[in-house]
Specification:
mainly alpha; Ribonucleotide Reductase, subunit A; about 0% strand
Length: about 300
Amino acid sequence: MLSSPSTSPARGALRTTPDRRLVDHVDRIAQEHPPIDLATCDFTVNRPDQVVRRFAPVLSYMARAELEVERNSLELAVMLPHAPEVDRYFYEEVWTPQEANHGLALDELQVRLGLSPAQTDLTTLTRKVRAVGAMAHLPGIQDVVRMLYYLTGMTTERSAIVAYRHLEDGLAELGEGALVETIVAPIRRQEPGHFAFYRLSSRDLWPRLAQWQRWLVRRLRQVSFAPVAAGDNHQKSDVGDMMIALGVGTAESSEAFVKTVARSEAELLGAASRGLEVPPYIVRSFRECLALARHRAEAA
């Protein structure tokens, strides 16, 4: 069982570290946004057929992505064997419990709507993850992996903020006030604190990396970027379906979505200074998701 922020034995030690600002931030997230209590969720749906028709792909993808944080936490433990205590505090005691309850609420909603429960993988550690974990013990590599972790966190949380805002607006249009007020809005309000943690951490680490480490971060990001919970073409199609359902599947709307998601990464890694609003690899990845979703729909 995860320790609570008030009882964790590491809390006193964290108070004396150079990461005090981050610790205070994580404390504030924990205190102001405890994991959503499922007993407070009102699953009343006024127009179930319309909710399913419009948002089934959104609930399916996002429930799975949120629930799979349990596996993500295992992956982080392998890939970041020397992670700062504040990182462990964040992802073990705050982020994982919050995100897991997001997934439970969304999964319960889709089941009540007559949809299939999320099909999750909570335990598999891929060869790639194990290989990264082995290399992370080498001098200098751990900070490269940490930087990739922060960048992934930033784009993931930013995309979640935008997606939940669109979902909230869409459900409100349908008159689904209970779902908005007790499920989607509370979830959305927890995501900015996560994003801020990754942004603060990345801005602190990036200037301290050597040139070869920065080059490696950029290179690995180029060849490995994918939306969260999109490890194969089927899952990438799910991302595309979600984007289309949320109204960000056209060329213009998807471009605006990707710009919002990638802004902080573009600024940090220097893409913005080279006149690029969005790193090309992020554009390519989301375009691929949309193309795969359309191909799947045409083949059905």
